[in-house]
Amino acid sequence: MKASRTLLKENSKKLESKNGWIKLLSIFLFAFLLPLILSSITAYAADVTLSWTPNTEADLNRYELYQSEIMGDKSGDFELKATIIPPTSQITIQVDDTKNWRWQLYAIDNSGNRSFGSNTVDLYDQIPPGAVKGLDKQ
Fold it and tell me: What is the DSSP string of 6-28?
């Protein structure tokens, strides 16, 4: 009986030690390795400043800026990107510069009436392709 208790205590100490290493390994993975993995994910961002001629109507309440991703020769659905309160007549937004974007602005009055949309403004991929190499005459 005494031998089995001693064996149980030894195994228990080994298990505690093993669990301690597992806990230490878990802490290492989450504290050190995970941030390294996440930091290797690249997100490209660019600041884009849009400006416009201010609406001078007395009952102007706000502007609404809509954004759409352009894919090929078509743009997707416009989604509300920002609400701008006058007298501001420009906004700087951050976008993924590996994609193509289109914006349109609307003026909204105090009654909630929405103007016709402004002209659209497009931004195309700002990352140039790699240099062409090996051009030769045949």
Answer: HHHHHHHHHHHHHHHHHHHHHHH
Q: How far apart are CA 40 and CA 44, in angstroms?
A: 12
Tokens of 114: 């929405």
Between the CA of residue 53 and those of 15, 62, 123, 124, what are the distances in Å? 72, 14, 20, 23
**All residues at 6 or more sequence positions from 106 whose CB lies less than 8 Å from its CB, including other chains:** 63, 64, 66, 114, 115, 116, 117, 118
Nearest to 67, CA basis, from 55, 76, 57: 76
* Structure token digits, residue 40: 């290797």
Per residue of the chain (138 residues), what is the pLDDT tens digit?
445 444 444 544 554 555 555 554 444 444 444 343 443 344 467 888 999 999 899 999 999 999 999 887 677 789 999 999 998 889 999 988 888 889 999 999 999 999 999 999 888 875 556 677 777 777
- What per-residue string of b and e applies to 18-34 under the rule 16 or more CB within 10 Å gives b? eeeeeeeeeeeeeeeee
